[in-house]
Amino acid sequence: MNVLTGEKEFFKDIKQIQFEGLESDNPLAFRWYNPDQIVAGKTMAEHFKFACAYWHSFNGDGGDPFGGATHIFPWDKQSDPLARAKDKMDAAFEFITKLQIPYYCFHDVDLVDFTNDVVENENRLQQIVAYAKQKQQDSGVKLLWGTANLFSNPRYMNGAATNPDFHVLAHGAAQVKAALDATIALGGENYVFWGGREGYMSLLNTNMKREQEHLAKFLHLAKDYARKNGFKGTFFIEPKPCEPSKHQYDYDAATVTGFLRQYDLLCDFKLNLEVNHATLAGHTFQHELQVAVDAGLLGSMDANRGDYQNGWDTDQFPNDINELTECMLIILEAGGFQGGGVNFDAKIRRNSTDLADLVHAHVGGMDLFARALVTADRILTNSDYQKIRKNRYSSFDDGEGASFEKGGHTLETLRDFAAANGEPEVRSGQQEFLENLINRYI
């Protein structure tokens, strides 16, 4: 009998995944991720706060726009929605504990199927939350963040908080209230807003200014409700440029930062950045991280990757060590996440039909992050990486450059300096050297 799932055990052939080190050839063991290993003053577990995405891992059925489900889960056999939800939760906590993942994340409708009746949905959610609370107590697994799905139901075809119909906005508010209640009841450390349809398809029928004002008001109301009911965590906005909307109001990190600043939300909100969303916005993930860090808003991240041949959100598991090492350099220099962690918002491929595929995907992702962390720490500690970048801006560290940064120049005095000192010396940015440096440490 499994102590967490009663008589049922869904991942029967999977034992708890252990750290076995670099000499191991066991595909169901960690080679790099040792949760207790100290790197840059913190354990790996503290650096990452890994989380399992409830929706992709236990709800994603492999369907796509051209075909139906290929992942037929054994926990989806019950006809009663609450019984099915409990089986799914049994499977989820069995999986999470076998991989020693300390956190999970969910949308409300991931936990239990919703109807179109607000009161019935609240009742269902409350019942499954009570079940989840016991699971958390038994396992020690915690909730990194909760959220409400305000994009799948047809009523949200024109958005939720930005919908031109007040009735629809009110339904969105009801869902957010219930999701906040669930997050608070489960000790959730954060709460996320992803505006999957908070945007427009055509400006011909859109009052963009009014819609963004409604979104800001909605976020203030949600924040005030949560604070009033004891929520002390951080609220995250998750940027995404498009898909399904033509243009979403949370386009990228810079857009969201401007929105939060304009509508007086900076004190309570930070960013939950997703790799694949950065790709769709035409940015590298490193760029999005740096924008968030520079604004003091790096809250959390959704770990995945896109496919350069596909123009949509493919949500594949991360596997690029170079890219992730560059990301970990930024995260380490920033001091880590503010409240959040690393949520694997990623799904196994349509033709990956074995339950073991889900295990391999998470093991690989966690190992990749651990390897990137170790590599980035070695680069920062043992190489000239930081020195080279600092030296590139050394002309601003003293003399007239330092005076400029402190506001000691006018346009006229800058002109006089240029005239008196002639043509500047050409200085290399040493890009290839730095790229080689990262490869050398990998």
Automatic annotation (TrEMBL):
GO MF annotations in UniProt: magnesium ion binding; xylose isomerase activity
Subcellular location: Cytoplasm
EC number of this enzyme: 5.3.1.5
Isomerase in keyword set: yes
Protein name: Xylose isomerase
Binding positions for Mg(2+) 2 per the UniProt entry: E274, H277, D313, D315
Family: Belongs to the xylose isomerase family.
Main location: cytoplasm
Organism placement in taxonomy: Bacteria, Pseudomonadati, Bacteroidota, Sphingobacteriia, Sphingobacteriales
Domain of life (superkingdom): Bacteria
SUPFAM superfamilies assigned: Xylose isomerase-like
